[in-house]
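Private note to self, pasted from the team thread so I don't lose it. Backbone tokens:
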């Protein structure tokens, strides 16, 4: 059902035309994104991010995003929450776009730094088990592949996939995210 919905949405977006000047150097944009962890358990695992982008030449852009994510780790009969607060900054390269640049594919690389909190900072779980590390600073790198489509002159719909490598994280060293969002260029 989700695949059918996404396919119909992408076909609709591909048919919308926008004749504005797009991706102008030094143009700024505000981005809001909702992402999920693939193959996550029943609990809702998600990431919310917001930030600014600044276009460079040829449709490339710099990005700086602040992100909050919550993921649950399944332990025995308990779900242990892992909250992450990250800053993701980097550069995205324009790979491909249609002639009017209404639909674009970009690939981005960036650095990630932030803070992670396990079980809301409590070291003892309900069954008496002790968590060795409840809070830590984390850092690493991220890669992103995104499909960007202009809905109007200033509004862009985003679909992206991300792969991250994080040191000191309780989640995993490598993990993926799949998300969608909106960007308002001004």
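Design output:
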């Amino acid at each position: 059902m989700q695949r059918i919905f996404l396919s119909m949405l992408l076909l609709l977006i591909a048919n919308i035309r926008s004749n504005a000047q797009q991706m102008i150097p030094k143009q700024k944009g505000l981005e809001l994104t909702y992402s999920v962890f693939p193959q996550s358990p029943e609990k809702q695992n998600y990431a919310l991010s917001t930030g600014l982008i600044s276009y460079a030449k040829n449709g490339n852009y710099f990005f700086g995003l602040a992100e909050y994510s919550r993921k649950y780790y399944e332990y025995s009969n308990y779900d242990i929450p892992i909250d992450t607060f990250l800053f993701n900054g980097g550069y995205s390269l324009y790979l491909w776009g249609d002639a009017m640049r209404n639909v674009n594919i970009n690939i981005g690389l960036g650095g990630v730094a932030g803070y992670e909190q396990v079980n809301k900072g409590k070291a003892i779980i309900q069954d008496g088990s002790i968590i060795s590390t409840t809070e830590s600073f984390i850092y690493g790198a991220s890669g992103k592949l995104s499909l960007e489509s202009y809905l109007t002159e200033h509004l862009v719909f985003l679909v992206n996939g991300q792969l991250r490598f994080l040191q000191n994280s309780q989640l995993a060293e490598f993990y993926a995210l799949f998300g969608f969002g909106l960007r308002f260029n001004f």
